[in-house]
Structure formats: structure tokens, C-alpha cells
Design goal:
The chain is of the alpha+beta class. The chain folds into three domains: about 30-105, PH-domain like; about 115-190, no CATH class; about 200-395 and about 430-470, 2-enoyl-CoA Hydratase, Chain A, domain 1, CATH 3.90.226.10. Helices cover about 35% and strands about 25% of the residues. It has 13 helices and 21 strands. It has helices at about 1-25, 115-125, 130-135, 140-145, 155-170, 180-190, 200-215, 255-265, 270-295, 310-320, 370-380, 440-455, 460-470; strands spanning about 30-35, 40-45, 50-55, 60-65, 75, 80-85, 90-95, 105, 175, 220, 225-230, 235-240, 300-305, 325-335, 345-350, 360-365, 385-390, 400, 410, 415, 435. The protein has an eight-stranded mixed sheet, with no helix packed on it. Helix 10 (about 310-320) packs parallel to helix 11. The relative contact order is 0.11.
């Protein structure tokens, strides 16, 4: 009996010690409060729920709560640091013991005009990355506009002031969304020149250009991608967006309007980070199919002249299909109070099914944002030649913020650089073979339309000529 008792005690001690050993070696969860480096956010993680606070010098408000996969994927963490993957980016956080006293745990709106003005100015002062490039003294802007704001300033007056300040930046990635009533009142007080070409008109024109050169043109996702073979055995791929490329098994012959509605009905039911991957998987699938089904293509034209952007990860994946060597493509860094955070490095990693011959990249001033990332990364590849005009020059991802009164706005807080450290923000990337395309959208599309009526497209014709000369060598 004594031996049995001893054995029982020993067994209990062994189980207890084993449990303690297991607990002590278990990795702690990343739950807690974290401050993001370079983006003005504080997050509170609680299992799969994330609360995101916008913090500035004057204010810290709860912006939203959502599932972690709507924000990003936890990559790794230690006791003091956390890395979250957001699309192509890796966001770095440091742990805080508690929320700063400035932070309000509820989404209470504050409509005080002076407070909202101050938060708006402070956020740009702390995070906007391109004041120097644009030769703008933000402190002088404060001196000009701050005296115009007082406790009696109306919403329309405040919005008008913000719009004037935004216009000075001349940055396609700086925007503000306000309630519809205020937006309509603002539009009623100004004369806006209507664009000649709608998005539907633009899609109609780029389809006509593709049809003129490609005998059996094929379309993917209502023309987000058009492709086929043109003379001289050159593959032609027109990519009109870095978005709306996921394969959601929609009807094949939908027009653009119906496609758009059905596509986003599917996409909006996906967690943000999963939807980003859907986009990458979609472009990967269609490019694999194109390269496989056009084995006779001895070179390719990639037409990005109508591509206004979307996801950086899509842009890099496209380039991966036209590269044969892993290499550094570009870097980017986020603005912090004094200078910039450490740069992130982005690599070209060739796809398993890739094309390594000559590629002619067509660009225009409509080539913007994520499509410019593809152009930037292509500078690292010797098999690429760029034809067209200088791109728009808006590379930075948008930093989403919210004022205390609930108005949402975006700004550019990053600097992208090529392998020589050159920054093309506000400048754009010029083509190797420069064409005299207008920077005005309507005039540019008029130019293309006139050329098409004369049965030509200067950029495509030049690519064909360059490839012919290359083949004759």
C-alpha cells in the first residue's frame, strides 16, 4: 500500500511538473496594445479582434474595430515587437503597457472646427512624405489658414479650407470624404469642368485599340486584362487595373457595369487580407494561362497606358512572370517625425512559368500608383524597354485617417526608391522612348482616338519596329 501511495505521489508530481514546463514554454499571444512605427496608429489586439486608434499630437480616437484579417496577418512577434503583413508590406509595432491618456476608448465625434483643423494639419506635419519635393512649407500653410477657423466655422467652410490645402499638394493620393450633403454644397459653389471621357468611354477605346492589332482578342474580367498575338509573333497584354483581377467565377460576357457590381458583391464578403490574395491569385492564374497558350510569342508588349493602379502585390506578381532572376527591385520607407523609418526591401522572384525575352512596357500619364510600381520595379530588368510618356508620379500607398468629426481622408506617407536611391514621387518615370502624350486625360485619349482613325498606334507600332530590328541583329 505504501509503495502504491509513493507511486501515486510521484505520478502527480510528474504530471504537475510537465504541465508547468509546457506552460512556461508556450509562446505568449500577441494580445495587448501596440504602437505602429511610421503610420500614426495604435492597435489593441484581443485574440482575432483588432481595435485601431488614430493618434496625432492633439488627438487619439478609436477609428474602427474589425477582424484581424481585415487589417493584416500576424507574421511574428516577441515580447516587445510585432510584425503584421499587410499586402506586400510588413508593418512593425512596439508594445505599449497601456493606451495613452489621450486615447478615447469610444468613437465619440467632436465637431469643434479648431480641433479638427489642428488634427488635420498635425497629421500631415507628422506623416506627409513629400513636402520637400513639392517645395511646400507646411508651417506657412498653417499661418495662412489657421486664422480662418474659429468656433463658428461651418462644415462647408471647413471643408472648403481643407480642399484648398489639399489642392496645394497636387497629389493624387490625397483625398477627403465628407457627408454627401456637404460635398454637394461644395460642388454647387464651384464650377467643375466635366471630363469628356467616362470610364466606359475609356474602356471602349482601349478595347478598339487592342482589337485593331489582335486578330483573336481575348478578354478577362470584362476587359481588366485583354490579350492575344499580334504580327511578328509578339504577345500583347493590356492590363487596365491592378484590381478586380480575382477569379470569382462570374459570367464571361458581362459588360463593365454589371461586372463591377457582381465582382464587388463577391469581394466585399472576403476579409481584406484574403481578398488581396484573391487579386494576386487571379493575375497569377491568367498570366500563367497566357504564357502557356502563346508559346509562339517571341516577345511581349505590356500595355499599362490606361492602368490607374490597385494593389502593389499584383504589380510585382506581373513582373515576376517576365523575369528570370531573383533580385532586389525597389525599396520604400515611411515618414516618421524626424526623417524616415528603416526601408523595406522588395524583391523580384521569378514565377515558375515565366517569360524571359524582350518586354515592351507602354506607359502614359494615366499610368499611376500601383501600375507605377511595376514600372519602377522593371528598371531592375534589362529585358524591359519603356515606351510612351512619363507616368503620373504617385507611388506612395495611402495612409487612411479620420478626423475627430468622422470625416475620412488619405495622405501619402511613403517614399519609394529605385536601386540607385532615386525617388520619382511627383515626377513620374519617363520612358526610354518618349512619345508626346498629353498629361491631360481627355487630350491624351483624343490623341489615341485620332491615331486609331488613321489605323495606327504610335506606341504599339514602335514596339513592333524595335522588335523587328532586334530580330534582324
Amino acid at each position: 500500500m505504501k509503495n502504491i501511495k509513493i507511486l501515486l505521489i510521484f505520478t502527480l508530481l510528474f504530471v504537475f511538473c510537465s504541465c508547468n514546463y509546457k506552460i512556461s514554454n508556450e509562446k505568449p499571444k500577441p494580445d495587448g496594445i501596440w504602437k505602429q512605427i511610421g503610420y500614426g496608429n495604435i492597435i489593441e489586439l484581443n485574440d482575432t479582434l483588432i481595435s485601431v486608434y488614430n493618434i496625432s499630437k492633439q488627438d487619439c480616437n478609436l477609428s474602427f474595430k474589425e477582424h484581424i484579417l481585415d487589417f493584416g496577418k500576424v507574421q511574428n512577434y516577441t515580447k516587445d515587437t510585432l510584425t503584421i503583413q499587410h499586402g506586400n508590406d510588413e508593418w512593425l509595432f512596439t508594445r505599449l503597457e497601456k493606451l495613452p491618456n489621450l486615447c478615447k476608448p469610444t468613437s465619440e465625434l467632436n465637431h469643434d472646427p479648431k480641433i479638427n483643423f489642428q488634427v488635420f494639419w498635425d497629421t500631415f506635419n507628422e506623416h506627409y512624405a513629400s513636402f520637400d519635393i513639392k517645395n511646400i512649407d507646411w508651417k506657412e500653410i498653417y499661418k495662412k489658414y489657421e486664422p480662418k477657423v474659429n468656433e463658428n466655422t461651418t462644415d462647408l467652410e471647413l471643408y472648403t479650407i481643407f480642399r484648398e490645402m489639399i489642392e496645394l499638394l497636387n497629389d493624387g493620393h490625397v483625398k477627403m470624404e465628407v457627408p454627401e450633403k456637404i460635398e454637394n454644397e461644395f460642388k454647387n459653389q464651384i464650377e467643375e469642368q466635366e471630363e469628356k471621357y467616362s470610364k466606359l468611354d475609356e474602356f471602349k477605346l482601349n478595347k478598339e485599340i487592342a482589337e485593331f492589332y489582335v486578330d483573336s482578342l481575348r478578354n478577362y474580367n470584362a476587359g481588366m486584362v485583354r490579350y492575344g498575338l499580334i504580327k511578328e509573333n509578339i504577345g500583347y497584354i493590356q492590363i487596365n487595373s491592378m484590381l478586380m483581377l480575382a477569379d470569382y467565377d462570374l459570367e464571361k460576357d458581362l459588360d463593365l457595369r454589371n461586372f463591377y457590381g457582381q465582382y464587388w458583391e463577391k469581394a466585399e464578403n472576403r476579409k481584406d487580407e484574403l481578398q488581396r490574395q484573391d487579386e494576386v491569385d487571379g493575375i497569377n492564374k491568367i498570366l500563367n494561362s497566357i504564357i502557356k497558350n502563346l508559346p509562339q510569342a517571341k516577345s511581349y508588349i505590356l500595355d499599362l497606358r490606361f492602368n490607374g493602379g490597385g494593389k502593389d502585390a499584383v504589380a510585382l506578381d506581373i513582373l515576376n512572370h517576365f523575369s528570370n532572376k531573383e533580385k532586389l527591385a525597389y525599396t520604400k520607407k515611411a515618414r516618421i517625425k524626424k526623417g524616415f523609418a528603416n526601408p523595406q526591401k522588395f524583391k523580384i522572384i521569378p514565377s515558375e512559368n515565366h517569360f524571359s525575352g524582350n518586354v515592351y512596357l507602354l506607359t502614359s500619364h494615366l499610368t499611376a500608383s500601383a501600375s507605377e510600381i511595376l514600372v519602377l520595379a522593371s528598371l531592375a530588368n534589362s529585358n524591359f524597354k519603356r515606351i510612351g510618356s512619363t507616368t503620373e508620379g504617385i507611388f506612395s500607398s495611402t495612409l487612411d485617417k479620420e478626423l475627430p468629426n468622422g470625416w475620412e481622408y488619405e495622405l501619402s506617407n511613403e517614399v519609394y526608391q529605385d536601386l540607385n536611391g532615386k525617388n520619382y514621387e511627383n515626377i513620374g518615370i519617363s520612358a526610354d522612348y518618349q512619345l508626346e502624350y498629353s498629361t491631360n486625360k481627355d487630350i491624351f485619349l483624343d490623341q489615341l482616338s485620332a491615331d486609331l482613325q488613321n489605323k495606327k498606334d504610335k506606341a504599339i507600332d514602335l514596339a513592333i519596329e524595335l522588335e523587328r530590328k532586334q530580330s534582324e541583329k
